[in-house]
Amino acid sequence: MSGVLIENISKFYFANGNRIQALDTVNLVIDDGEFICVVGHSGCGKTTLLNILAGFLKPSEGKITFNQSNSTNSLENDIGIVFQEYALFPWRTSIENVMFGLEMKGLSLTESKKIAQQYLELVHLGHAANIYPHQLSGGMRQRVAVARALAYDPDLLLMDEPFGALDAQTREHLQSLTEEIWLKTKKTVFYVTHNLSEATYLASKVVVMKANPGRIYKVIDIDLPRPRDPLSDEFVRIQRLLNNSIKDDDLTGKISIGDYE
Amino acid sequence: MNNSYTSAVNEGGNISRNNFRLSITWLIENSIPFLVLAIIWEFIVQMKFFPPILMPSLVDITSTGWRMILDGTLLQHTFSSVTRLMLGFAIGSLIGVAIGLVMGQNRMAEKFFLPLLSALMPIPGLAWIPLFILWFGLGDLATVAVIIFSAALPVAFNTWTGVKSANPVWVRAAQSMNCQGHKLFLKVVLPGSLSMIFTGLRIGLSQSWRALVAGEMLSSPNWGMGFAIFDSRQFLATDVMLVMVMCIGLIGFLIVTVLFGIIEKYTVVKWGMLQEVGA
Predict the structure, then answer these.
(1) Any chain A CB within 8 A of the CB of B46?
(2) Are residues A121 and A160 located together in one domain of the fold?
(3) Are residues A117 and A234 located together in one domain of the fold?
(4) In the predicted model, what is the mean pLDDT of residues B246-255?
(5) Shared domain check, A250 and A146
(6) Please, which contacts does A83-87 make with residues 24 or more away whose CB atoms are closer than 8 Å?
(7) Size of interface A-B (CB pairs under 8 A)
(8) ipTM rounded to 2 decimals
(9) Structurally, how many domains does chain A consist of?
(10) What mean pLDDT do residues B141-149 have?
(11) Using CB atoms, which residue from A79, A128, A152 is nearest to B5?
């Protein structure tokens, strides 16, 4: 059982003498093999939560437990991350990028090469193994990044708006590729996005977050059959539900006083 | 999406096929300013503003150059100069890269070295030569010392900048795959800052080259291009001076532009981290 338990996580910053609460007592259970999408407006703390899961930030309060290792330190756990920006190493070819994590695990060169090639083929980039990242299109780079994160065989895959910078068509293509890979590999995925249709398409569970202070507002399970049809009534209904949960934020009082003080 | 991959490859092929024609065009374009300069020079010589012994014609310079090639003196001067340069530059850039990397990694080191670098950077290497001659005596050591000094400063400064400006996402990505300590440094920080390190090395090398010529003039070794220029002054051998000046320019150009151009072509340019200069 390789789930993750997030208990009472809070995070504050101090800026100009003011205490800013980025996250307020966040509780969440991530089950093994779940595809969790976190949605919310900017400032709702979704990326902060991801960074805490990744171990880049320390929570001010609360703790995260990785069931696999029973450890609370993210850096001790096998976590794969796909960033929004292109985080590929420009000095390594596609396959060498995918091999990075395998080298870190101490695998032999031949073995890493073999596994890396398999993962490149998983993202349909087997033919681009010896190309440098700057020669690849944006969508292809993110596919290599996905292959790199997966080849490391992480217990938890974090994705921070991975396709946010891509054009709509490429984005759609990569969404269905992501689904296909998730169905094949059964990885636990924690996926941050602000795109509600993307969340509805991919998630088995959507976490809606709100700002001021950053907190979990709603958790919605989606058990539509896959692949999902974005034009079906059910799909549209769920997307509307998400849209309404997010919208409340703008319409109800929260913004009025706190923000302008 | 397959198309963009193949087109990248095709472009690569075309570039190498066109390389030869491009470099001919490049050569012609860049020769024109020097031709104009040569014509103006010859014109002034013919006008006899200066006596011919002070301003030799291009024919005289060329024949002197040819004589110096044949009797081996040109080679001997060049060889001693380049040896000194390489020795000083190798030591200086190693020190510079080391200091820069430590500064980029460690806040204490940064606080310690940054004020020193900022204060020492604006001082021309030439200013130290008399002092170094007093300390290390006339000859090679003083010259090499000033080269080390001239190379180390810009290399350290640029290396530091490179480490600081290397994309933090690379470091995070590596850390998430359990890459830490010296592995993180060797596999990510170093290649990530390589293009800035090369910039530093280029600047360091051209500074070293200047320091070398100045150092040789003052510390009077037996051989060396700077020494040859200074020594010719006693014999009014302006032709020798000009041969050496041109030679210094040419070798400096070859080392800095051609050597670094090749090194960069197979590293940072290949990785798309630096646009090819002039491309």
Answers:
(1) no
(2) no
(3) no
(4) 88
(5) no
(6) A83/A145, A83/A160, A83/A162, A83/B169, A83/B172, A83/B173, A84/A160, A84/A161, A84/A162, A84/A164, A84/A165, A85/A165, A85/B169, A86/A133, A86/A138, A86/A141, A86/A142, A86/A145, A87/A145, A87/B167, A87/B169, A87/B170, A87/B172, A87/B173
(7) 79
(8) 0.84
(9) 2
(10) 92
(11) A128
